[in-house]
Amino acid sequence: MAGLQGLLQEIRALEERVSEEVAREAEDFGYTLRNGRGVFEKEIIARHRELATRLSRYLADSSLLAAVTAPLVYSLIVPLVLLDVCVVIYQLLCFPVYRVPMVKRSDYIMLDRHRLKYLNIIERTHCMFCSYATGLIAYVQEVAARTEQYWCPIKHAQRLKNTHSRYYKFLPYGNAEGYAADLEKLRREFSDL
């Protein structure tokens, strides 16, 4: 287990380096964070507006297939909003019963790209849709991860392509004694949050 803990520490250090690099990008592109919003200097905003693709040019350059499939893409908003509502209700009703810490939705769903002045109205709409969809899926994954930690904190026998934030705490597949001995402790092990 010491090997796994060491790897997790290395991952956290790398994540911190990535955060520092993202902060350096903010400097490179001339914005600062104020009250959680990226704010550009006036000269940069003016330059962004100059670089925006005019709506007429954007539409002229779009393919017919893009126009035909766009309504299909945007129709996903209905099941996404339904999923969002269901997961919020699920978490509000169930997590307190099992004393599982709540997932803060706003930590996952970020809607800010639509403020970029180098995007036209269609590109801004695309960015809002994608930000909502990917943020929602990340939020749902974290709710599911905490649920899984409570109900079945056992690693899979097969290697997963992607693991969620709680998976490293789970018991090894086949560890029957550990499951019997540690299940209740694992159900309460949210001290890292």
What does this structure look like?
This protein is mostly helical and 193 residues long. The chain has two domains: 33 residues; 148 residues, no CATH class. It has seven helices and two strands; from the N terminus they run H-E-E-H-H-H-H-H-H. The protein has a two-stranded antiparallel sheet. Helix 5 packs parallel to helix 6. The longest helix is centred in the last third of the chain and has 31 residues. The two termini are 20 Å apart. The mean pLDDT is 90.
Q: Summarize this, please?
A:
The chain is mostly helical and 193 residues long.
Largest sheet: 2 strands, antiparallel
Radius of gyration: 22 Å
Give the overall silhouette: globular
How much of the sequence is in beta strands?
under 5%
For the record, the count of structural domains works out to 2
Low-confidence stretches: none
**Share in helix:** 55-70%
Number of helical segments with 4 or more residues: 7
Mean pLDDT: 90
Tally the beta strands: 2
**Oligomer designation:** single chain
The arrangement of helices and strands along the chain is HEEHHHHHH
Secondary structure class reads: mainly alpha
Query: Span from first to last CA?
Result: 20 Å
- Please state how the strands of the largest beta sheet are arranged side by side: 1-2
